[in-house]
Amino acid sequence: MARLRRCSRTGCTHGAVATLTYAYADSTAVVGPLATAAEPHSYDLCAFHAEHLTAPKGWDVVRPDGELLSAGPRADDLEALADAVREAGRAEPPAAEPPPAGGDKRGHLRVLRFPEV
């Protein structure tokens, strides 16, 4: 017998109809159809919380245009995007390249290494 998944929001007892996944590298919150299995780094949401989700300032929220229904998986672009984000979260990060001779550059910051005296 399949167990009904509940909304992850504290105090909410409604059934989940959507899955929220964060793409931190893209500053994006993706709300898609309910994942087929519970994922450790995603959150199941009821229809109300999925529709009223807000993201931090500067972040984007991607969600379906229509209603979220618990009718089963849908084959559309948003589902493919949500699956890709989940898959990217599970993948092993690529091996880091050695830092350039002048220092290590990470995003918009640069770490300079000074010789010990």
Number of helices: 2
Average pLDDT, rounded to a whole number, is 77
Name the helix and strand elements from N-terminus to C-terminus, one letter apiece.
EEEHEHEE
Which strand order does the major sheet show?
3-1-2-4
Basic shape: elongated
Count the strands? 6
Say what oligomer this is.
single chain
Give the helix proportion (percent range): 10-25%
Strand content: 15-25%
- N- to C-terminal distance: 68 Å
Provide an overview of this structure.
The protein is α+β, with helices and mostly antiparallel strands. It has one domain. 16% of the residues lie in helices and 21% in strands. It contains 2 helices and 6 strands, in the order βββαβαββ. Strands 3-1-2-4 form a 4-stranded mixed β-sheet. The radius of gyration is 19 Å and the shape is elongated.
